[in-house]
Amino acid sequence: MGKVTISAIKADVGGYVGHSAVHPDMLAEAESRVREGIGSGLLIDGKVGACGDDVNLVLTHELGVDAEPVHRFAWDTFAACTRVAERLHLYGAGQDILADAFSGNIRGAGPGVAELEIEERPSEPFVVFAADKTEPGAWNLPLYKIFCDPFNTAGLVIDPKMHGGFALEVHDLFESKSAIFECPEELYDLLVYIGTPSRFVIKHVFRKSDREEPIAATSTSRLSLIAGRYVGKDDPIMIVRSQSGLPAIGEILEPFAFPHLVAGWMRGSHHGPLMPCAVAESHPSRFDGPPRVVGMGFQLADGKLVGPRDLLGDIAFDRARQIALEITDYMRRMGPFEPERLPMEEMEYTTMPQVAEKLAGRWQPLEPIPSALPAGAARSAVE
Ligand code: F6R
Ligand code: MG
Ligand code: MG
Fold first, then answer.
1. Quick one: pLDDT band at residue 375, thresholds 50, 70, 90?
2. Chain segment 86-121, per-residue pLDDT in tens
3. Quick check: is 265 in a domain?
4. Are 96 and 232 in contact (CB under 8 A)?
5. Among residues 219, 214, 211, which one has the least CA distance to residue 237?
6. Model-level pTM?
7. Domain contains 356
8. Strand, helix or coil for residue 215
9. 166-172 and 177-183 beta bridge pairing
10. 14 lines ligand 1 (CB under 6 A)
């Protein structure tokens, strides 16, 4: 068998009820399409899942990353789910189908995509994470902890295969540029960027010895940057391979025991804690949230998907859920004030500028303040 590609592709094509979940009929439609895809020989295997109002497809095949037939298949599946959503008058039917027609690649057309083309190992465990009510940069902190932080990942200290560290590829979503940072040597350089997750996102992680075959991949599309206006949030997906010289499953899950603050809650305009939860509980409710993350564990068997196992549903994450709810109470009390509400620059991609535009005439220039200082006196005190 040659290389196998794992394609994790997600889209919000209709919510049940509001933006809280996906209707079972949409999942049934996607499952029947996936069965056809396997039957026709296009796919080796495929599983359908959901996190909040997003349908996710985990597909395996031999056609590589960015394969037109696989992307077309996902596009057609989401279009079929959209028709189900329309029939049931579900909310926001077809929301993430931004283009009028499929044009060769689903990236940039609305749905989120993370793909890995790999040489399947004798045993190939990996996790697909999906999140709702947040954005791709939400993966920065967990990926940093998994691949760069020895307080999270014991293997960075103990396992000779991991001791040398990893290389992380970062994308600048505003300027369409990418850079690779080798860690731990360039940790501080990496952190200059990934601490701004609205703009810089970790796209791939590599073994240092192999820049060809990534061991983790994320979806990085930001719909507002594509559409130039607010069109819903870019709930992200990612794939992380595990074990045998890579972080253990427990090291990959460990960062999610800390519900870090992410952007995207309510109207894509608020910060909230990323709450780990079981797939069956990934239904945003309170204030359309709090943001959720699920972890679906798989083993590959000759390209077939054995799984998923619902990893973040475990009781070991109960306390993280509790902490997330406490943070929720705290953050909500800030209401429309920053930093509960996103900063002004980020609100550009919401509907708030339309409100501000109506109020623009209300603002009158201030009288210039007469300066009490002689010219040139306003110098820096340290000069
Ligand atoms: C957040 C989200 C929801 C909606 C909110 C308003 O990512 O999807 O919080 O923004 O429910 O939705 P509309 O404007 O569609 O009524
Ligand atoms: Mg939605
Ligand atoms: Mg969503």
1. low
2. 999 999 999 988 887 888 888 878 899 999 999 999
3. yes
4. yes
5. 219
6. 0.95
7. no
8. coil
9. antiparallel
10. no
Q: What 8-state DSSP symbol labels residue 166?
A: E
Which residue type occupies 372? A
- Answer whether 93 contacts ligand 1 (Cβ < 6 A): no
Of 144, 151, 208, which is closest to residue 170 (Cα–Cα)? Answer: 144
| Domain-located, residue 117 | yes
The pLDDT tens digits of the residues spanning 169-183 come to: 999 999 999 999 999
Q: Which residue has the tokens 């696989």?
A: 70
| Cβ-Cβ contacts under 8 Å for 55 (sequence gap 6 or more) | 10, 11, 12, 13, 22, 26, 27, 30, 48, 49, 78, 81
Instruction: Show the domain range for 169.
Output: 4-349
Ligand 1 atom with the smallest distance to the CA of 133 is: 7
Q: Rounded to 5 degrees, what are φ and ψ at 18?
A: 60, -130
Question: What is the atom index within ligand 1 of the atom nearest the CA of 132?
Answer: 7
> What is d(CA 55, CA 22) in angstroms, rounded to the nearest whole number?
7
Bond prior to 69 in cis (omega within 30° of 0): no
Reference 74, options 100, 124, 122, 109; nearest CA is: 109
Rounded Cα–Cα distance for residues 329 and 327 (Å):
5
As to burial, measured by CB atoms within 10 angstroms (0-12 exposed, 13-18 middle, 19+ buried), residue 172 is: middle
- 250's enclosing H/E stretch is helix 249-253
In a domain, 195, yes or no: yes
- Specify the number of domains making up the chain: 1
How many Å lie between the centroid of ligand 3 and the Cα of residue 369?
49
| Three-class secondary structure of residue 285 per DSSP | coil
DSSP 133-184: SS-GGGGHHHHHHHHH-TTT-THHHH-TTTTT-EEEEEEETTTTEEEEEEET
| Separation between Cα atoms, residue 81 and residue 84, nearest integer Å | 5
Question: Known catalytic residue: 230?
Answer: yes
Indicate which residue's Cα is closest to atom 12 of ligand 1: 267
Residue 376 clears pLDDT 70, i.e. is over it: no
Question: Does 132 participate in catalysis according to the annotation?
Answer: no
Which residues are bridge partners to 6 per DSSP? 60, 116
Q: Write out the H or E segment, with its range, that includes residue 14.
A: none
Which phi and psi angles does 292 have, rounded to 5°? -120, 155
